[in-house]
Amino acid sequence: MDIARALNSKHFLTRPVESHMSASAVGSGGIDVLSTPWMIALMETASRDAVQGFLPPGHTTVGTRVDVRHTAPLQVGAFVSVESTLIEIRDRILVFAVRAWSDSGDIGHGTHERVVINTDKFMSRLKKGV
Q: Per CATH, is 3-128 categorized as 3.10.129.10?
């Protein structure tokens, strides 16, 4: 696997903040703003998408670590943008710089780690309870 060619790969995405993404809807707070779990989910999606095209068939990545700050609120109905950049490769461990923002400014940033896996082997081990 030659994942090294993916270093510095970036992926951007923009989504409207819908009511099911709010802190009140997911139980992480009682107000209708973008929840931290949803911000992180978008960061994970962007990270996965940044490298998926560089992986051999039958491989993907799974999230293993998140270290982010959610620094500003974003109301339901606004648009959130996310960027993920692959900044480090340690064997099968991929480290991404992630950030989220809106028209009103930055709303979060940090790092996210993912591990490259062989999907069939991973699922086989899971079914065996290993």
A: yes
